[in-house]
Design brief:
This protein has 826 residues and is an alpha/beta fold. The chain folds into five domains: 12-126, Archaeosine Trna-guanine Transglycosylase, Chain: A, domain 4, CATH 2.30.130.40; 232-275; 288-465, Rossmann fold (3-Layer(aba) Sandwich), CATH 3.40.50.300; 471-533, Helicase, Ruva Protein, domain 3 (Orthogonal Bundle); 620-808, Ribosomal Protein S5, domain 2 (2-Layer Sandwich). The protein is built from 29 helices and 24 strands. The radius of gyration is 45 Å and the shape is elongated. The N and C termini lie far apart (118 Å). Residues 13-253 form the Lon N-terminal domain. Belongs to the peptidase S16 family. ATP binds at residues 331-338.
């Protein structure tokens, strides 16, 4: 054996008393320092010392004696181990303590204790040298790991100075351990080669498990799951880059203890990777005729939208690798944007998945969370793909105009990559950290307005306007779809209830005012619930009766039910057949009456009033325009088009203009433009104030009010309405009650085009108006208005305010000067 320089330790060593195990030369252990003596030793020697010798300690195994005084030094074991302090870690909670990482160097024997306080210091004698046993270091380290179970044997080995004595003590322990391993191997069931390979790399602590215990069974089950997961990774069709990442992660997983938090995180990640549809897709049904029939059956009207879907199918039939377009349906609520997306998926034969984006303000909802903490998860896009199980579904991004923004990022910016056909073939979710191809996904977004959608996101989508329905379209939708759905939901049949089209029209015009059909659907549901109560009350109760009772009541049972029904019936269908003074005195007399049929129950206007209450919307246009200074404008809102009354009054004052009705800055500017134009053209139209002056604001205040003050109003399209309202006020003439108007004005009296013409025209049609004044440059927008609406309305296209005023007043706007114009206050 080659000569090795012996380790020389100082003759005086501070003593560290430990009760956590026995440190042998060549082994390493961690020990806690919490007693007063050991704390003083660490602070004085290890934390303040600078030389190498200050980090060498004498480690003495010590068994605490509860009966001994903590102030006195306990009896010391005479043999110890000189150790090198490799690491010191301290903490102050819940009380001051340290953790030492120490490595054993050699044995020593205590000659005498030189000092006891604040920590013991002893004169020592080195007993062995490192070169005497260079090949036994590894053996001592393994025995040190088992020192908790074989504490007394380890002390005896520590006391054995000579090599021969140590071999005599350690060989029986090794033989005993080998026999235990052989017995354990015999009791285990044979496993597959893959399972054996997994077990081989598990921690050595598993050899201490008792075969057949619950812990052992859980480990075996977990190993089987890992083997299955590894098999799925090998057989999956994921791209090469994703496969490399999974192979790397499965190797890390095999080496992790199950108690580590990262174990569950890595396993969840691998399970998601094998479940994603990397190459799994559905085959599109490309029968254009069948698709047209299906769309027509599911949705009435919406011709422009259905045309675009059929165009996509036709191009897909000619070119199989067409990238999915990014469609955005924009329209008021209740017009069927979401249901159209579902019908598109049904037409194509694809899976459908809806992602609600309303209120989302964290970009991680789109891109996913990074796998840096427990609880991270993929974004909604990847999670949706996992849910549908194919890589070419129809994704409906609902309410894309209601995305928020916060400190967690901008989800609208995160959608830029998702909704870009040139980029989404390489979409990278933060959780996956590998690219996924989204180019085969058909994205459909819905929104009520484009005003709140960022310009960059809006540029990536193809906008398809979905306007509101006309009254005729609502009637057809109600009788084709809504009424059959409500009957099915309430357990009714057409033989029990009938709702004529004239009744449906009354519901549309008097109980709802909307662009869609949601309120109409709720009103129909209320009618069905009321009828369901009457039907349930008329059904016979299930009861056990004697045969004589049954025979006696058989002829009169239906009559009694009918009489009770007539007394409380709210539908007034058969009310004229039975009068109060003709009530029979007995059941036998009632049996002689000729009874009208009870079913079906017919819903007429009287029944509507009893069920739904008084009409919510009455035609008040003629009453509102019974005085000068009132005009009807047309406004666009995210809920569809609306009619808007503008009222004006004048009074003595200092020439001030007051605006009320929660108006925006643009509408306020339109009001100032209108009064300025009228003042500059007062002589032309012979408009004077109450004092006969052509200066309309001379000693006169004007108040403009826009009703429904709780609703914010803004936009330039009310300009022509304000001019007409003020012209009516100063001329004393009434505006036609069947005319509505929209258009922006300039200071020179020009009428400029505005948006939302179709929705505004439909609103005028719903309100029963007959004439609509629009800017001449908006004439092209009338092509989108349904033909029946264009037939019911007359349109006046104006390029200047002169044409607007001539159309808004009967006989044109030619005013002759006359004294004492009407001073009207509304």
């Amino acid at each position: 054996m080659s000569s090795v320089s012996p380790i020389q330790i100082p003759s005086r060593l501070p003593l560290l008393l430990t009760h956590e195990g026995v440190l042998l030369p060549g082994s390493t252990m961690r020990t806690s320092v919490d007693s007063a003596r050991n704390l003083q030793l660490v602070r004085s020697r290890l934390l303040k010392g600078t030389s190498l010798q200050s980090t060498i300690l004498g480690v003495i195994p010590n068994t605490p004696d509860p009966a001994s005084d903590a102030q006195d030094l306990p009896p010391l074991h005479r043999i110890g181990t000189a150790a090198l302090a490799v690491q010191v870690v301290g903490s102050n909670w819940p009380k001051p303590h340290y953790t030492l990482l120490i490595t054993g160097l050699c044995r020593f024997q205590i000659v005498q204790v030189l000092k006891e306080k604040p920590y013991p210091i002893a004169e020592v004698e080195q007993l062995d040298r490192l070169e005497e046993f260079p090949n036994t270091c590894k053996m001592r380290e393994e025995l040190g790991e088992l020192s908790e179970q074989f504490y007394k044997y380890a002390v005896q080995i520590l006391d054995a100075v000579s090599l021969e004595e140590r071999f005599k003590m350690t060989i029986p322990l090794l033989v005993r351990q080998i026999e235990g391993l052989k017995l354990l191997q015999k009791t285990r069931k044979p496993k597959q080669d893959d399972d054996k390979r997994v077990i081989a790399i598990r921690p050595i602590r598993r050899i201490t498990h008792i075969p057949g215990t619950l812990e052992d069974e859980d480990d075996d089950e977990d190993n089987d799951d890992i083997v299955m997961l590894e098999k799925k990774i090998r057989t999956s069709s994921m791209p090469e880059q994703a496969h490399k990442v999974c192979v790397k992660e499965i190797k890390r997983l095999k080496k992790m203890p199950q108690s580590m938090p990262e174990y569950a995180l890595t396993r969840n990640y691998l399970e998601l990777m094998v479940e994603l549809p990397w190459n799994k897709s559905t085959t599109d049904r490309l029968d254009i005729r069948a698709a047209r029939i299906l769309l027509d059956n599911d949705h009435y009207a919406m011709e422009k939208l259905k045309k675009r879907v059929l165009e996509y199918l036709a191009v897909r039939q000619l070119k199989n690798n067409l990238k999915g377009p990014i469609l955005c349906f924009v329209g008021p609520p209740g017009v069927g944007k979401t249901s159209v997306g579902r019908s598109v998926a049904k037409t194509l034969g694809r899976e459908f998945h809806r992602i609600a984006l309303g209120g989302v303000c964290d970009q991680s909802d789109i891109r996913g969370h990074r796998r840096t903490y427990v609880g991270s998860m993929p974004g909604r896009i990847i999670n949706g793909l996992k849910t549908v199980g194919v890589n070419n579904p129809v994704f409906l991004l609902d309410e894309v105009d209601k995305l928020g923004k916060s400190l967690q990022g901008d989800p609208a910016a995160a959608l830029l990559e998702v909704l870009d056909p040139e980029q989404n073939h390489n979409f990278t979710d933060h959780y996956l950290n590998v690219a996924f191809d989204l180019s085969q996904v058909l994205f459909i977004a819905t929104a009520n307005t484009t005003a709140t959608i960022p310009a960059a996101l809006l540029d990536r989508m193809e906008i398809i306007q979905v306007p509101g329905y006309t009254q005729e379209e609502k009637i057809e939708i109600a009788h084709r779809h809504l009424i059959p759905k409500q009957l099915e939901q309430h357990g009714l049949t057409p033989q029990q209830i009938q709702i004529p089209q004239v009744t449906t029209l009354d519901i549309i015009t008097r109980y709802t005012r909307e662009a869609g059909v949601r309120s109409l659907d709720r009103k129909l549901g209320a009618i069905c619930r009321a009828v369901a109560v009457k039907v349930a009350e008329g059904q016979p109760k299930e009861a056990k009766l004697e045969r004589s009772d049954v025979a006696e009541r058989e002829d009169t049972k239906g009559i009694v039910q009918f009489v009770n029904c007539v007394r409380s019936m709210v539908f007034h269908v058969c009310r004229e057949h039975i009068l109060e003074d003709e009530k029979p005195e007995s059941i036998s007399d009632t049996a002689e009456l000729a009874l009208p049929p009870e079913m079906p129950i017919l819903i007429d206007f009287h029944a509507l009033k009893d069920i739904l209450g008084p009409p919510m919307y009455e035609m008040e246009v003629s009453q509102r325009l019974s005085q000068p200074g009132v005009a009807i404008g047309l406004a666009w809102t995210p809920l569809g088009g609306e009619i808007m009354f503008v009222e004006a009054s004048r009074m003595d004052g200092e020439g001030q203009l007051t605006l009320t009705g929660q108006l925006g800055d643009v509408m306020k500017e339109s009001a100032h433009l209108a009064i300025s134009w009228l003042r500059s053209n007062a002589k032309k139209y012979q408009l004077t104030n109450a004092f006969g002056s052509f200066d309309l604001l001379d000693n006169t205040d004007i108040h403009l009010h826009f009703p429904a003050g709780a609703v914010t109003k803004d936009g330039p399209s009310a300009g022509v309405t304000i001019v007409t309202c003020l012209a009516s006020l100063f001329s004393g003439r009434l505006v036609r009650s069947d005319v509505a108007m929209t258009g922006e004005i300039t200071l020179r009296g020009l009428v400029l085009p505005v948006g939302g013409i179709k929705d505004k025209v439909l609103a005028a049609h719903r309100a029963g108006l007959k004439q609509v004044i629009i800017p001449r440059r908006n004439e092209k927008d009338l092509e989108g208005v349904p033909g029946n609406v264009r037939q019911d309305l007359s349109f006046v296209t104006a390029s200047c305010l002169d044409e607007v005023l001539n159309a808004a007043f009967d006989g044109g706007f030619t005013v002759k000067p006359r004294p004492g114009l009407l001073n009207s206050k509304l």
